[in-house]
Batch of 4 targets.
Target 1
Amino acid sequence: MRNISSLLGKLAKTMSVGMMLLFAVTMSNAQDVKEGQTLFKSKCTTCHSVTKKVVGPALAGMTERHDEEWLVKWIKNSQAMIAAGDPTAVQLFEENNNLVMTAFTDLSDDQIKNIIAYVKDEEAKAAEAPAGGGAEAGAAQSDDANTFMIIGLIAIVVLAVVVIVVLNRVIRTLEKVIANNQAAIEAAQARNETVAENRFAKFAQAFVKNKKLVGFSVLMLVAFLAVAGWNTLWNVGVHQGYEPVQPIKFSHQIHAGVNQIECQYCHGGAFKSKNASIPSANVCMNCHNTVTASEHYDGELSPEIAKIYRAVDYNPDTRAYGNNPKPIQWVRIHNLPDFAYFNHSQHVTVAGVECQTCHGPVETMEEVYQYSPLTMKWCIDCHRTTEVNTDNAYYDQLIEAHEKLKKGEKMTAAMIGGLECGKCHY
Amino acid sequence: MKENMLAMNKKNFLGSVCAAFALAAVVSSCGDGKTRSTGWEFSRNMYDPIAFNPDQPNENFKNKITAQLPPAGTNPIGFERFEFANSLEEYERAGRELTSPLAVTQENLAKGDALFHTYCAVCHGPEGKGDGPITKERSVTDSRGTRALETFPPPPSYQKSDAASSSRGGAMSELSDGKIYHTIYYGHNSMGSHASQLSPEERWQVVMYVHELQKK
C-alpha cells in the first residue's frame, strides 16, 4: 500500500511540475500574442488583414517571405529602406503600386516582434480552421452517405417487391371482373351519374326555395362588390405599399439601420435639390472597394456586390476601373405626378422635416416600400398643422419689401425674385 | 298585424345589410398592404414627365443614359477646378500651398460639424477617433437569418491625445488644410473620394471641423 501511495505521490509531483512548466510557457506566449493583438488592432488593421489583401498585402506567410530582422526594419521605416536601396524593399514597394506604408518609429523592436508573433498565431489558426473543419465535415458526410445508401438500397428492393405483388393482384381481379360482368359495370356507371345529377338539382331547388337565404346571398355579393369597388376607386393611382423587386437586393435595414449610415450620405440631393437623388455607384464603392461580404459566400465575392462591380466595371483583383460602366436600373417607387411640384430641399433643409416623416421607418425595411399615399389630401393635412419657422432670409426680405411698400416706394417684379431662372423654367 | 310584420322585416333587412357590409369590409382589408404592383392607374401619361428624368434610360444617346457627362475640358459657371493631381508629391504640395478660403466662424463650424456627422463619422467616428459604427462588430437579423456583418478597417484617429501617425508621414493631428482637402477630394487607402458628395465650400467646412477634432 505504502508503495502505491508513494508512487502516486511522485506521479502527482511530476505532473504538477509539468503542468506549471506548460502553464509558464503558454503564459509567456500568450503575453506576446496578446500585446501583439492590441498593437495590431490599433496600428495595422487600417490597411492590413492577416488572411486577405486590403490596402496592403495579406500578412499570412510574411515570416516565410522575409526574416524577422528585416521585417522589424521595414515596419519601423519602410521609406528609409527604399531610399537606401534595399532590393527586397524596393521590389515590395513596386509590387504594391508604390503605396507608402506608415512609418512606426514609435514602436520598439519587442513590440514589433509581438505583432509578428500575433500574425503568426492568427495565420496558424486560419490554416487550421478550414482544413480541420473540412476534413471533419467530409468524414461525417461520407459516413452518412454510406448508411444512407445502404438503407436506401434496401428500401428500394422492398418497395419493388411490394409493387410487383400488388400489381399482380390488381391485374388478376381486373381480369376476373371484365370476364364475368362487363354489362353490369356499365349499368352501375349510368346509375351513379343520374344519382349525382339528382343530388345537385335537389340542392339547387332547396336553395331557390329558401327566399331568405337567396336574399342574403345576393345582398352579400352586392355589399362585397360595393366595398371592393369603393376601395379600388379611391386607390386608383395611389401607390401606397408599392414594393417592387429591385435589380440589386440592397437592404436599407443593414445600411441605414445596423450600419447607422445617415440617409444623406447616399441621398445627398435631399439637402440641396428638388430630387433626393439615387446615389451613383461611386458612392457604393466608397465602402464596397473593401467590403465584399466574402465570409458569407465561402470566400467568394457576394453576388449582389458583384453587380456593383459590373456596373462600374471594377476589377477587385487589380483594384482598377475599366471604361465600360453599365448603369444600374433601379425601379422608381415614389412617383409624384408630373403636374405636382415637390422640392426635397425645401422640406429637409428649410423646414427640417425628418426623412421618416414621409418615408416611414426605412432603417428597418429590408426591401423599401412606399409608406405614405402621396395624395393631395395627405400633403394638405400636414400643411394645415405645420408651423412655419420664419427665422430666415426669405421672410426677412419679405418684411423688408412690405416696409418699403408702406413708405410708398415702388416695387418691381425683379426686386422680389422675378429674374430668377427657376421661377419660369423649372 | 301586417304593419308589425313589415317593421320586423325592415329591422331584419337593415341588420343583414350592416352585417354584409362589415364582413365585406373585413375580408377586403386583409394583407399587410405591400404589393409588387402599382395597382390601377388612370391616365398614366399625367404621371410621367414630358422631359427625361436624370435616372431614366434614353434612346437618344449612344450609351442610352439621360445624365450625360459634360464634355471633357468644360467648366460649369462659377466652378473652380482642383489643380492638384492624385499623387504623393501633389499631396505634399497641396499641404504646403493650399489654405482654407473660409473664415473660422461659429456658422461654418456648425455646418462642418453637421457635414462631418453625415459624411465622415460612419468610419471616423463622431469624435474622429476612428471608431465609427461600421468599424465595430455588429450583426443583422432579417429574412436570411442572423449573421455578422463585415467590419470596415478603422481609420487612424485625428485626436492629438491618440498620437496616431498618417501613412503619408507626420502625425494625424498635424494634418494641414491642403492635406485634408486633398484626401477628401481623392480618398486614400480604404477611403474613397468624397468629391461627388461634398461641394468645395462644404469640404472646407469639414476641414475646419476636423481641425477642431485634432486639438482634442
Target 2
Amino acid sequence: MKIAFLIANGYGMGGTVRTVYNLAEGLSERHEVEIVSLVRHREEPFFAVPDGVGLRGLTRTGAGRGNPPTRLGRVSDRVSRRRTAALLGGREARRENFYTPAAMAALRRYLKGTDADVVVGTRPGINLLLARWAPRRVLAIGQEHVNLADHSDELRGLIARGYPRLDGMTVLTEADRDAYRVLLDADPDWLTAMPNPLPDRDYPRSTQDNPIIVGAGRMAPVKQYPKLVQAFSVVAGKHPEWRLRIYGGGTKDSALRRRIVDLGLSNQVTLMGRVEDLTGELAKASILAVSSRVEGFGMTIIEGFSVGVPAVSFDCPHGPREIIEDGRDGLLVPDQDVDALAAAMLRLVEDRDERVRMGREAVRSAGRYAIGPIVERWERLIEERSAGRRPRRRPAWW
Amino acid sequence: MRAELSRIDAEDVLELRLDSDHGDTGAGLALRRHGDEEAAIRVTDLEREGARVRARLAGLPLADGVWDVLWVDGRGRSVPLSTRDTGLSLADRITYLRGRRERELRTLRDRDGRLRVRAAAATPYAEVVWVEVDAAEGTVTVSGVLAYAPERRGAATAEVVARQRHLDGRLTAPAELDGARFHCVIPLAPVADAHVRERRHNEWDLWLRTPDGRRELRLAMHADDIVGKKHKIVYPGAVVDARGAGDAAGVRVRPYYTVKDELSLLAVEHTGGGR
C-alpha cells in the first residue's frame, strides 16, 4: 500500500513535523510512504528523513518568490487568495504562507494525479482541501494535531461543514475525540483517538541521581513557564542543590527571565534552548514538570516516561490525564494550582525511592506508545475505513 | 553489548555495570579514536566481577578528542559498547575537580546509545558554584571550588582580580579560601568609578589569585554538561553610582558568562528605568 502524508512544511521543525516523520518511519516497514510538503523553504529538511521514506516539496518559498510581476498575475493571485480564505478561513489561510496560490494549484494537481492509496492530511487547512479535492480512489484521512477548542469559531464552522466528506479522522486524545463527535455528529468508527508514537530507539535511562527537574516545550505563553519557576522556587528554597532546566526554542522568554531574576533563582534555573536529542537530555533529570494551560497531547511526558522520568503535571486539558496515572507513574495536581504543583515536586524531590518506583512504571507506560502497536492501529484504521467508506459528495464549486 | 551504568571516577577508573554477566571471562575493553579505525588502545588494567567492570584509564596515552569504547571478546573480536547511562552525575563532576590533573576524562552517550570517552587537557581554574548580586549593597558574591589545582588545606586569604578587557583597568578584592573552596565579595563601586564611557560595553574578566601570588585562576563554570551558558543563565544587574560623576548617569553591572563559559562582569551606562 502507498501512504502519503500531506504536511504544510515538512522541511521545518516543530511537533507536527517530528511526529509525522516518526509515524512515516514506522509505516515504511511494510508500506510505501511519502511525505508531501506544500511548501519548501530550504534544501535540506530540519529533521533527517527516515530511511525508506520519500520527501518532496510541491512549491518553493523564500527570497525572489514574492508577488507576480504582471498586473494580470497580481489580479489572479488576489482572486486565488480570496478563494483560499473562503475555503479555509482567514486565519488558517494566512498561516505562515503555507497556502500560496502556487501551493494550492500544486496540491490540487498532486491529488488529481497521485498513485497513493491513502492520503493523510496533517492540519485543518490541508484536511479541508483534502475533503474537497481528493479523488474517490484515494482514502482521505484527516489528522488533527491541535485540540478543537484551540481552533477559531470560523475554522470550527468550516470543519463542521467540510470534515464529514473525509473518509476518516484521527485526533490525539479521547477528550478531543468527544469534542469532535459533538461538533460533527460523527459515527464512532469514523473518528479515532490515535496517540503520537514514540520512535523505535535505544533510549537512555535516568539513574534518578541528578537533582534536576526538567520542563520541555517551546517558549510560548501556553506553557506557562513563569508558573513553573514559581512552583520550583519552593523546591529551590528547601533544597538549594536542585536545578530546573527548561528546554525549548523561541525568543519570547523575557517574562520568564524576569521571573527567574525576581525570585532569585539565577543559580538554579537554566534556559537550555532547543536540543536535537531531547530524550538524551531528559534522561539526565529525575522529574519532568508540566505547567501548561493546555496540552495538545503531552508528547514530552511520554518521552520522559521512555527514559524513566516520572511526571508532575497540572491536570490540564487534554493530554496529561490520559497519559499519567496519578501515583503510579507521576503525579497529577489540580489544574492551575501552583502550590499543589510545588508540593508534588517537593514530594518527589524528597523521596528518591518513590521516584525510582515511578520511573520504572513510567517506562512500562511508555510501551503503550511504542511505534509497533501504533502502526498496527493505523493499519487497522485504514482497513476499516476502506471497507466502510461512503461515496464522497462532489464539491459545490471549484 | 550494553552497559546500564558507565562512569569515570575521580581516579580515572571507568566503571561499568553491564546489562548481564556475559560469562566471557577472556573479554576486555579497547578505546578507539572516533573516526580513526587505526588508533586503538587496549585497556590492560581491568577487573571484572560478574556484570561489573573496572577499567583503569589513568596511564593510557589518550590524546585529546573523543574515543569509542569497544568490547573485545575472548577471541579478540570487538564490538562497540552501548550504554543506557547519560554519563552525567552532577555530584561526581564536582568531586572530579579535586586535585592536580593534566587531563580530564568524561563518559558520553551519543544519540545512538554508543559509549564514548572524551579526553581533554585540564588546566587549573576556579569553578563557580554560586553567584549572588546584591543591588542594594552594590556587590557580586561568588563562591565555588578550585579545579585541577594542587590540593591545599586550611583557610587562607587570596585575591579576586577583575581586569578591564581591552583596557588596562585592574581591580582587586579579598577572597577567602577554605581547602579547595573559595568565596569572594566583589564591590561594584570601583567598577563604576573606572567605567570608560567612550566604550559602550565595559567587560571585566574575573580571576582568582592564589595566596602565594604565583597563579591566577579564571572564574568559570565547566563542571556540568551545559555548554554556552551566555544566554542560558540569567543574572540580575545592579546600578551603581560612579564617584565624582556629578550628574552623570550611574553604571549598570551584571555578571555573565562569556562564549567560553567564563564568568565576567558587564558594565554599561545606566539609561534610566528601574534599578
Target 3
Amino acid sequence: MSLSRSTLLGICTVAVAAIYSAGYVYTEPAAQANSLNPPSARSSTSSVKGQTASRPLRYRDGIYTASGANPYGTLSVEVRIASGKIAGVRITSYQMHYPQAFIDPVMPKQVLQRQTWRVYIVTGATASSYNFAEAVYRALAKAKV
Amino acid sequence: MTQTSTGPRHLPAWKRFLKTPKGYILSALVPLSLFAGGFRQGPVGLLHVLVAVATALGVDAGVAMWLRRRLGFSTGGAITGLIVGDVLSGLTPLYLVSVTVTVALASKHLLKRGRKPIFNPAAAGLLMAILGFGSAQSWWAGLSLLPLWGVPVLILAGLFVAIRVKKYPQVLAFLGTYFLLVLIMALFHLGLASNTPAAALRVPFVNSALFLAFFMLTDPPTSPASMRGQIQFGVLVAFSSVVLFAALGGLSYMLIGLLTGNAWSAGAAWWSRARRGPVANKGMRTGFWGVGASPSQEQPQVGSS
C-alpha cells in the first residue's frame, strides 16, 4: 500500500511537471514579446544611478505617447515637449501588479528635472521603474529631431 | 495549542520539536529566509521578519495573559510572523508589518472552529494588508527576486515540508490544477494585460504559487487530513485562484483562493460532524474529514502558521 501510494505520488509529480512544462513552452512566445525592451533602455537605466543629468537633447514640440512592457505588466506614458524640452510627463495607463503610487509622481518628476529618460529606479519597484523608463525612452525617440 | 511530538521520548526536546509539523516548517523556512536575505532586498526583508516575529510573539503573549494561560514561546505565532515577513515587500513600512501580523493573529484567535483557526492566519493578514492598505507583496523568501535557478532551491525546501507534514497530495492537486488552468487560459487567450498566463508560469509569480503551495496550503489546522480531502482542497484553492487571476488580477488572488478553501474545509468538517450527531461525535478526535480519514492519515494537529 505504501509503495503503491508512493508510486502514485511519483506519477502525479511527473504529470504536474509535464503540465507546467507544456504551459511554459506554449507561452514562451508571449513571454518573449513582453520582454522586448530596447537593450539600451534596460542596461542604461540601472547603470546611470548616481550620474548627473545628461546633456539636453533637441526634441520636436508636441505630445508623444509610448508604452513599456515586461512580464510584470505594462504602462503607458504621455510626454509633452515644449520649446524643445520635456515639459510634462504623465502616466496614462498603468497595468502593473504593484500600485502606481510607488513610482508616480516620483519618476515623472525626475524626468522633468533631469530632462532625460535616465532616472533613478525606485527600489522595490524595479520592474515598474524599468517599464516607465522604457516608455519615456520610446516617447522621446519619437520626438527626436 | 497542544503540541504533539512524534519523536521518541529519549530525544532532547528540541530534536523532538524538529520532528513536529511546526518544526519541519521552521526547519525549511528559516534557512530559506536567511538564504533569500543574502540577496537584493534581503536585509530589509530580514528586518521585516524580525519585526513580524517580535510582534507575533508579543500579541500571542498578550492573548495568553488575557486568557490566563501559561506563557510560553508561541511557535505558531512565530511561523505566522515569519511567513508575513517573508511575503511583504521591502517597501512596506514597519508599522504595517506589525499591523498585518496583528490582524493575522486576531483571525487565528477569533475565527475558530473548536480550537482550530478557520483561516490560515498569515493569508488572512496579508489579504487585509492588500485590501486595507494597498501594500505590496514580493514573496521575496520564495526567491522571487532571484533568477530561475532559485526555483529548484524553493522546491527542495518545499518538498521537505510537504512530505514531512503529509500534505504532498494536496500540494500536487493544487499545483496540477493551477498549472493546467493557466495552460487553458493560454490556449484560449484569456487573462488581463497585466496578468498573462506567461507571467503566471515564470519568475516571480511562479515563486509565489510555489511558496503558497508548500508553506501556507500545508498548514495542518486549516487544511484537510485525508487524501480525498486534500485533493478536493487543493483543486478548489487552485480553481478559485486562477478564476480571480483571470478576472481581476492583482496580488491577492491566491490568498483569496486559499481562504476560500479554508472556509470550505471548515464548513465541510462542520457538516460532516453535524450529520454524525452528538452521540457519534462523543469522544472522537477533532479532525477534518474524519469520515474518510484512517488513523494513519491523521496528522498531529498543531498550531496554525
Target 4
Amino acid sequence: MTASGSRRGFLLLAGSCAVLLAGCSDALPRDSQGALRRATGGTLYVGASENAPWTEFDSPGSVSGTEADLIEGYAARIGASIHWETAAMSDLATMMTDNELDLIIGGLTADTPWSDKISPTRPYQESRGVDGSTEKMVIGVRPGENALQVSLERFLAEEKGEL
Amino acid sequence: MNERGEPAPERTSTSGRDALPEEQQKILASTIRFQWVSIVVLVVSILAVAIVAGSSQAMKVAWLEDSMSLLPPIAFLVAARRIRKPSSREFPYGHHRSIGVAHVVAAASLLAMGAFLVIDSTMTLVKVERPPVGLIVLFGHGIWAGWLMIGVMVVTSIPPVFIGRRKMKLAESLHDKVLYADADMNKANWTSALATIIGVLGIGVGLWWADSIAAIVVSISILHDGVKNLRASIGGLTDGRARTFDGKEPHPLTEKVEEVARSTAWVADAVGRVRDEGHVFHVEMFVVPVEGAVVTGQHCEDLRTALSEVEWKIHDVVIAPVAEIPAEQAFRAD
C-alpha cells in the first residue's frame, strides 16, 4: 500500500516535471534578435553558395539542389517566403555577421571553418567527402537565433525520421 | 640507547607520517581514501559538463572550474605520499613542507586560469559573440540543449557541497591547509553552478550577454580563490606566525607552549618561535634559567618532552637556554 503510494507519488512528480519541462521547452529558447518571429509568415533571408549537388544555380535568381529543397520545405512549414542571396561563402559569412541573413546553405559540414560566424545545425545527413571520409552535412544559422535554430533542427530531424 | 650511551629520546627519530599520532594517522588514511572518491566524482562531473557544454562560454568556464578543482586533491595526495619519508641529514626538518609547496602550486594554477578566463569571457562580451544553443535529440524526443545543460549543472553541483563539508571537518582535525582550501572551493562550487544556470537561461530568453556575464562572474570567483590561496600558502612557506587551519587567527598553541615552559621550575622566562611545517609545528623555545640554576642536558630534554606532549601538532622542538631573551629573534605576545 505504502509502496504503491510512494511509487504513484514518484510517478506523479516525474510526470509533472515532464509536463513542466515540455511546457517550458516550447517557450524557450527565444531568438536574440527575433529572426524566427519575423520570418514566420514573412520573409526568410537565405544565402547560398554554389556547391552541387547541395546547391545549384540554374538560372539567375533561382537556387535548386537538395539543400535548397530542404529550405523550401522548411519555409513552407513556417509560412515564409524566401529571399535568396547568392554569393561566395566568405561573402555570405560577412553578410550573416552583419545580420543580413538568417540561414546559409552550400554543402556546409559539421566541421566547417566558418563556425565562429555561422552556427551549424545538427547534421541532417551523412555523405562521402572528397577524401572518402564521412562528412556530416549541416545548414548554417545566424548565431544566437536559437528559436530559429531549434525550429529548423526540429524540421530537419523530422525529415530524417529521428523525431 | 645511542652511541654515546644516552637514552635515545622517544620522539627525535620520528618524522613523516610517524609524526602524527595514531588518531591523526587514521584520519589521514581515511582522508586519502575520501580524496580518491572525490576525484572520481569530479571526473564524472567534468565529463558530463564537457559533453553538454556546446557553445556557451559560461558552460566552458564551469567546465574549466571543475577541472581546476581537481588540482588541490591531487596536490594533497602527492604531498601525503611525500611526507611519509623520515627526516634525514639531507632533509633535517622532514618533508612536511611539501604540503605548503603543493598548496602554492595549486594556488598559482588557480590564479593563472582565473586571470585567463576573466579575459577570455570579457572578450566574448566585447566581440558580441551570441552563443548558439540548438536542439538535441534524446530517445526520440527533441529538446533544447540548454535544458540538458541546466540539468547537468544542477546534478553536478550537489555532490561537491557534501564533499566540501566532509573535507572541512577532516582539514580541521588534520590541521591541513591544502585540504581546507580544497574544501572551501568544493563548498562554493554550487554558486558557480547557479551563475552558469542563470547564464544558460539567459541564452534561452534571448539575452545573449547573460552567458558572458555569468562566465565573467564564475571566472572572477576562480581568480579570487587563486589570490586567497596564494596569499595563505606563501604566508606558510615564508615562516609566518603559525595560524589556525583556516588562517583566520593566530594559533593558540604558540602561547600554550610558552606557558608550559614558563611554569617549569628552573625557567625564569621563556619566549617561543613557532612555525607551521604543514600538519605539524616546529618550535624553538628560548628559555632564561632562574638565578643560580644549573641547566643540564636532562633538564632541557625533559622540557622538550613536556612541550611535545602539549599536543600532537608540536612535533619538532628545540630548547635554547639563553642569558636573556634575544629581542631580535623572539617576540612576546601582544
